Amino acid sequence: MNIPGDLIIIGIILIGILLIFSIGISETMPVFARNEFDNICDNYLALLSTKGGLDSIDKTNLENELINIGYKNITITAPTNAEWGSEVTLKVEAYYDVDSINPDLSDDIKTKKSTYENSTRVFGLEN
Fold first, then answer.
1. Total structural domains within the chain
2. How far apart (Å, rounded) are the C-alpha atoms in residues 26 and 24?
3. Is the pLDDT score of 50 beyond 70?
4. Do 109 and 29 meet the contact criterion of CB atoms below 8 Å apart?
């Protein structure tokens, strides 16, 4: 069986494109998870601003939302009851497991730390 040289070259190019595509997808998944992590934390920062604090139920809900998108070992630091007009800070630390493809095409799981820390003022009317 005689395979033309052009067919071999096209096959090698297609395999290379497939590898680059698969590595690219595996490297962008943490970016999407981090974006969703920040969006969830922003929502709870807004809640913190209106309520003046996060009670245990709010912290549990935040933790559960982060667990649902793949985060683990979550630490949440937020005040429970702040004065109107005072500055409050929400700090969330969590870890995310990332499937990674090494140059030798072996799979590897890397754990990446995500930290969210943002401040706002309390302007809610609930207190």
1. 1
2. 5
3. yes
4. no
Structural domain containing residue 27:
5-121
Would residue 127 count as lying in a domain?
A: no
* Residue 111: per-residue pLDDT: 86
Bridge partners (DSSP) of residue 113 are 95
Taking the model in full, what pTM does it have?
A: 0.73
Tally Cβ neighbours within 10 Å of residue 42.
13
Alpha helices in 69-125 (DSSP H): none
Q: Is position 126 within any domain?
A: no
Report if residue 100 sits inside a domain. yes
Whether 60 is covered by a domain: the verdict is yes
Per-residue tokens: 52 = 């003046």
Q: Please compute the mean of the pLDDT values over residues 44-71 and round it to a whole number.
A: 91
Q: Which residues contact 6 (CB under 8 A, 6 or more apart)?
A: none
